[in-house]
Design goal:
CATH architecture of the largest domain: Sandwich
CATH class of the largest domain: Mainly Beta
CATH topology of the largest domain: Jelly Rolls
Structural class: alpha+beta
Radius of gyration: 24 Å
Shape: elongated
């Protein structure tokens, strides 16, 4: 109802204000207008909510913008049909909008987003050598000589890299990388395969591969870019679940054994839900959802972006449930999450923003586009109804 106070000219001025296209004098006029009357404030807040919903969805063209706009139009404009065209901007632009609007909104005594020392995800991990010695990968180190003569190179910027020299023994020795909550890490194996490890993940692998296969063990989530070698298949083991490839790119999310998700970016892979299951083939832009305990699996075509965006330092969700989003946020930002109202878990959001953003900006968008309120207490995020 409040939005009917706005004529076309005022809507266009508000759009320009949110897009940062006005000079300071015009910005001040908008502020004074919003503060001059409670009805103006209500109209401003309602229009802001619509703007953020659509702008957030538009950040990636693969997210269903049409669906988002139709949903907004149906609930706020009734039968009146008007088209508003927005410019699709880079993620950094929407953060600027968030910051500007966040600063403009009057602070309340119990403003829940005003307090946070929570840091975003950053490169950090522990390397366990074949001897059992643990190396803190957050610090720079001289090259390490392993028991088979291989050299392990550690760089705080480019991650971990193993040389390709022939090992001095045929016996396989293993290293392990452990990435904590709030961390991520990148490594290059001896065959040139590149692996991005997400927060709360562990990878165990041979320092040098043998002549018949390349086998690694994963817990958690990782993105693989496998060096092609038709003579030595690359195998990823996740408990009872396994993937066989020769050279391809794919993402594995195995935080939950009853819901292991594998998305193929390019190439071809075969997977087995467990030791008793037959191998199934996955094609590019397909998702395999597997329960390794029961052996059940499902394959479907998907937009791969929400599944692999984390590797490119973005947070992308497309019509995702809030409880699933908060599971990822808890790992990335190393926080605990508490829902005061169970029904809020079913709320759905579209999102595309930089992964290293202030957590308050993410929650700000969610608050402005839903009836959820986020309160940060130390390292706990409390979610309640407004």
């Amino acid at each position: 109802m409040e939005k009917r106070l706005l004529n076309q000219e005022m809507e266009e001025r508000l759009l320009a204000f949110f897009n940062g296209e006005l000079d300071e004098a015009a910005n001040e006029e908008i502020r004074q207008w919003a503060d001059s009357d409670p009805k103006n404030r209500a109209a401003y807040d309602a229009f802001l909510k619509d703007y953020l919903r659509l702008r957030w969805a538009q950040e990636d063209r693969h997210i269903q913008v049409t669906r988002a706009w139709q949903r907004i139009s149906a609930t706020t404009r009734g039968k009146r049909q008007r088209r508003i065209y927005f410019t699709v901007a880079a993620s950094i632009a929407i953060l600027a909008v968030a910051a500007a609007v966040f600063l403009f909104i009057p602070k309340k005594a119990n403003q829940p987003l005003a307090q946070s020392s929570i840091q975003p995800v950053k490169p950090q991990a522990t390397l366990v050598l074949s001897t059992g010695k643990k190396i803190d990968l957050n610090q720079a180190h001289l090259p390490i000589l392993e028991q088979d003569g291989s050299t392990v190179n550690i760089d705080t910027l480019s991650g971990l890299r193993y040389d390709t020299a022939a090992p001095q023994t045929t016996q396989l020795i293993y290293n392990k990388i452990i990435v904590p909550r709030g961390g991520e890490y990148f490594l290059t194996l001896a065959d040139g395969t590149q692996i991005w490890l997400d927060a709360e993940s562990t990878l165990e692998y041979p320092v040098q591969f043998n002549t018949t296969e390349r086998r690694v063990k994963l817990q958690g989530k990782a993105y693989f870019s496998v060096t092609r070698d038709t003579t030595k298949p690359f195998l990823v083991e996740v408990d009872k679940f396994s993937i066989r490839v020769h050279g391809t790119e794919f993402n594995v999310n195995a935080h939950d054994a009853q819901r292991i998700e594998t998305v193929l970016v390019n190439g071809s892979i075969g997977f087995k839900a467990n030791a008793k299951s037959a191998e199934q083939l996955l094609q590019p832009h397909q998702l395999a959802m597997v329960n390794s305990l029961t052996g059940q699996s499902e394959i479907r075509d998907v937009n791969i972006l929400p599944h692999v965006a984390w590797k490119n330092r973005n947070i992308v969700f497309a019509n995702e449930r809030l409880d699933n989003i908060m599971e990822e946020i808890a790992r990335w930002y190393d926080v605990h999450v508490f829902f005061q109202n169970e029904e809020l878990k079913a709320l759905r959001f579209d999102c595309n923003m930089p992964r290293y953003s202030d957590i308050r900006e993410l929650f700000f968008f969610m608050e402005q586009t839903s009836n959820a309120r986020f309160y940060i207490n130390d390292r706990t995020v409390i979610i309640s109804k407004k």
